[in-house]
Write a structure and sequence with these properties.
The chain has 16 helices and 12 strands. It has about 350 residues and is α/β, with parallel strands linked by helices. It has a single domain, classed as Aldolase class I (TIM Barrel, Alpha-Beta Barrel), CATH 3.20.20.70. The protein has an 8-stranded parallel beta barrel, surrounded by 7 helices. α1 packs across α9, α2 crosses α13 and α2 crosses α14. The radius of gyration is 19 Å and the shape is globular.
């Protein structure tokens, strides 16, 4: 059942071993500026993203919804995001807009003045998968946006995850054109789910009206790992083995960001972002904002105060990185010097 699967995902992420083995953001070293020539009080971390002002370049990327416990998590996230002034997405809304399951677990977000909101549907669900199964089209996409008062529609690509899910959707032909049909009707951001985006894929999507990307590369939560644990618990031996085999599959988040930066469109850098320093590293590499999900999920499952405190800590760390690179504005940070080391360096052309 869809609601059980969504609850399983949160349970596994909170309690299981689902991280990649290497923290690729640690390979990005910002150069220290010993004489910043700016007062810390002057450091301004605000950015404009699709005409919306964020107090810091941070987006809580979509993680859950569609089961009873998700309401508390999304409400804590929305309330905290509104307070701190950062963006927010929700998990896939198919459960609510097609099956009518727990719509309040999403609509609770609409009650809070989050400055930038992302609705969310999956690419596998906008093309036919099984006989008699509903395909999500323009009407459903608009309904997903209206449910939370969204500014953009995020369409997530999760075909690796679908392969490892015992109940996964494994048809992909036609998804590119279906995304284009939606993007011609509303502002669409395409996001991966932990395996990264390459430039050829992004270029095809950009040619079909997609206006922004969330790279969501490897280095954070591996959804192959998440589905490995679910498949193992269900006794699905083949899928459990597949999840273990492809645990580390994908493009590292910083590499994917470097791939897409020349396209000149807004970019969210997610995949293993765990600190304000990681946010600064992402911005220096060309991101408009950084995205976090797993890094704030534990706080959001605990309560509002831990959630808002975690976001405030992240923003303070980010401002500190700005100060120590002599960056008064985010635009200044985008020109800061950095070095790329370790495994990430090995991915890049000589």
């Amino acid at each position: 059942m869809l609601t059980h699967r969504k609850a399983d995902h949160v349970r596994v992420v909170l309690g299981g071993d689902v991280e990649g083995s290497h923290r690729f953001w640690d390979d990005i070293q910002l150069w220290h500026t010993a004489l910043p020539e700016v007062d810390f009080a002057e450091v301004d971390p605000s950015v404009t993203f699709f005409g919306k002002r964020l107090k810091a370049p941070l987006v809580i990327t979509g993680m859950t919804g569609g089961y009873p416990g998700a309401t508390t998590i999304n409400e804590n996230l929305a309330r905290a995001a509104a307070e701190v002034g950062v963006g927010m997405g929700v998990g896939s809304e198919r459960a609510a807009i097609v099956k009518g399951q727990f719509p309040e677990s999403y609509s609770c977000v609409a009650r809070y003045p989050v400055p930038l909101k992302f609705a969310n549907i999956g690419a596998p669900q906008i093309i036919p998968q099984r006989e008699g199964e509903k395909v999500l089209g323009v009407d459903e996409a608009r309904a997903a946006m209206q449910l939370i008062g969204a500014d953009l529609l995020a369409i997530h690509l999760n075909f690796l995850q679908e392969m490892v899910q015992p109940e996964g959707d494994r048809r992909a032909r036609g998804a590119l054109d279906a995304i284009g049909a939606l993007a011609a009707q509303m502002p669409v951001l395409v996001k991966e789910t932990g395996a990264g985006l390459s430039r050829p894929v992004a270029e095809k999507l950009q040619a079909r009206h997609v206006v922004a990307f969330d790279v969501s590369g490897t280095g954070g939560t591996s959804f192959a790992a998440v589905e490995h644990h679910r498949a193992k618990a269900a006794g699905a031996e083949r899928e459990a083995r597949l999840g273990r085999t492809f645990w580390e599959w994908g493009i590292p988040a910083p590499v994917s960001l470097r791939e897409l930066a020349p396209l000149g469109v807004p970019l969210i850098a997610s995949g293993g972002v765990r600190s304000g320093l990681d946010i600064a590293r992402a911005v220096a590499l060309g991101a408009t904002a950084a995205g976090m999900a797993g890094g704030v999920l534990k706080a959001a499952s605990t309560g509002y105060e831990p959630t808002v405190n975690e976001l405030r800590h992240l923003v303070h760390e980010f401002r500190t990185a700005m100060f120590l690179t002599g960056s008064r504005t985010v635009a200044d940070l985008q020109t800061a010097r950095y070095s790329i080391t370790g495994l990430t360096r090995q991915w890049l052309p000589p």
